[in-house]
Structures are given as C-alpha cells and as structure tokens.
Write the structure tokens for this entry.
Amino acid sequence: MAATVPNWHSYLQVIQSREDQRVQHFQKAENVLFIVLERVKTMDPRVIVDYSRNSEALEFSLSAAENEVTMEVPLCINSEVLLMQPCTDEHSNSENITNGDCQVPGSFYLGVPKQETNLENWTKEDVFSSVDDVNSRGHIVPGKVLHLLKELIVAAIVHCKHHNLIKPGELSAERLNEDGMQLPLLVSSDWKTICFNIIPVIRRKQDTLNNWQERGFPKGSLSKITQEAVFIPASYHHWRYSTNRPISKLVQILRTLKGYRLDSLCLLDQINHEYWKEKGEEKGLTFQHLKMILLWATHFFPSTEDWLSLEGSVYRLLVILLCCLVTKDLPHFLYPEQNLFNDSLDLTALYSKVETFAISPKYFLKFYFAQREGKKSHQKDNGLKALLYLPAENRDFWDTAFFDMLLSKFQAYQIKDTQRISAMSSILSKIKEMVHNES
C-alpha cells in the first residue's frame, strides 16, 4: 500500500525547504536571549548560562508548529550534597503548604544538610526556607528561585535596552506575570515570535539506567545521556525530575544514523499539525509525543535496513502510534511505567484520524494552499483494531515481531532477515491459536 504512493519525497522536500531558515531564525532569537541571560549571570553568579543547545535548534527545525522552546537555566550549586526529601504531611504542616502541592506526582524537597557550610549562597532568604528538621537546615524553594530569576531577567532587559544591547521590539516580558513553573519570554526573529520558557534547573550526577536493553542506538548512548539527573520546579515548594534533556539528546543521536528516522518524525508532525489536530485547538498529539514514538520505533526496529526507505520509516512510527492510541498507553521511553497520554486527549478520535492516514496516505501527502479537497472514503480494516489491543492484554506482543506483522498488514515490510520472518510467523500462529480458542 505504501509502495504505491508517489508523493512521500515531494511532501518531505516541501517541509525540509524551510528547515535552514527556521534554524537561522531560532539562533538569532536565542542570541538575543543569551545577551539577557549573560547580564543575569553578571548580576547574580548563582545563575549559569548554558550554551549547549544544539538539540533544541534541531527539534525546532523539525517541528511543524514549534513556537515554544524550553530554555533551561542551570543553577551554580554543589547539588551532590543536597537531600532529596519526599513530600510528607509533616513537611506540609511545617512549610504551611496549601493548594494540594503535595499531590504533585514524584515531587520532593531539596534540603540543605545541617553540617553543610559550602551552600551559604543558597541559604539566603531570597531562595531558602528554614525548617525544624533533624537532617536539614531547610529547603531551597523553587517558587522563590523563580521569583528571583524573574526579577533578575526584568532588570537585565532594562539594562540591555538602555545600553542598546537589544533592539526595540526584539524581546517582550509581557507574559512574565503568568502563573506557572516557567518564565515565558517572547523573542522576535524577523520571521515570527518564539516563546522561550525559562526554567531554573539543578543538575547532578546519578547512576545510569542499567536495566535497559540498548537496541537501535550506538553502544553506550543511553548510559551516557542518563548519567545526569535534572530537577525542575514542580510547584512553589517542590522539585521533580525532568527527562526533557536526555530525550532531546537521544533524538539528536538519531541524526547521526543512516536512514529516514528524523525525516519520518518531521513528516508525521506536519501531518499531525495539518490534519490530526482540531482547528484552533491546542489539544491533541504533540511533538513530544511523536518524539517518544520515534524512540520506541528505533528500539523495536534496530536494523539500518528498517530505515532505508521513507515510506517504510513512516510506517514504523505509525504502527507503534496506532497501538498506543488503541491501548491508551504511550510508555515513557526511559521510564516505561509512566503513561504520557493524559485524560484530556480524545484517543478514540485520534486513532480514527491516524488509521485513515495509514490506510490512505496519498490523500494527505499534499499541501493545500486553497480550500482543502474532500478526502475519499475507504474501507477500514476492522481486524486491525482488534490486533492492536493485544499488547495491552499480553505484554509479550509489545515486541518487534508483533510490529513486523503490522507492517506486513500495511504492505510496508520488506525485511529479508530469516530470524525476524520466523518470529513474525510465530506471532501470527499465536494469534490464530488465540482466536481459535476463543471461538
């Protein structure tokens, strides 16, 4: 089915024609922000400017409608000595926490040990809250850190404008007063306005993920990108882990591999933006969801042979996406016990749209500069959805052989590996036996 569609590369070429320009505009906007952050660092040495942002530029160029970018601002602190203290009722009472802050999943306090004398800059009232605790002197409060960072940014912007370091209209702080655990700054790049969401982060070394089977990535990739933990604000009083940085680094690693991995991500994100999202609605699949689908596809299809054609590469993402939509579970790539789908997503409606594209892609691989044409109806394969439920019933189906079988169903399977063909045949036999026993 995929082999009969002639428009894959033409569609991709139109998307890619704007990538270089997007990167240039992104870097120009980013440079404006760096000027402000450098001034912030001069005003308060507890703040660091992180210039290693190649992964963010790459993702901005790949995304169809990425107008918001996360900008991590590391804090200069000896994080190895900080105490990770779980949120408890006792702490809640001593901190006078309200509004259900302790219900934030995976949230914790970052405490300063009583005997620690090298954190004096972080026990000042502007970022610290004292507590009567056996082990710690008190906690570094993310809400206070955010407030301090906001004041520093405003002062830095005033300074930069006064000294003509940034041009009029290049940067707007109008959204800084919004409630939230990030500080949005609007930066103009002559092309469009990009929103940089400033987030203070604390980084420290951690043990790498040793229980993960490394497939599809260069040897040592996962251990390298998971050897650092990143903490970001979860609520006014609490911090939480963030996996945004390691996930972005994994996507960047895929750029070094042969094949159409990133091209398939780029193409599906455009389809999502054009067809799968409701007009005027922010809800729906995000670029972050699709990144996670790509990482799983790389894991389940580790062979270079899987990624040699654009059509086949896209279908490798599609079969995993369809399965996740049916089972209503998109596992986090590094922490599979976490489901990245939330209750606000209409997964049933999304499944229908994605399935329609998978069965009849030629009606979507066009750019409509006028009114869109009506899409021809097609006969849906009712047996497909039943197959996609299987991984939820039996985790053994969450495997390469199962997805190979789905690729074969879409006529997008050209692998000649005899072991994989044998494994796919075994899965088919297992499914037929299950159907026979149930009938």
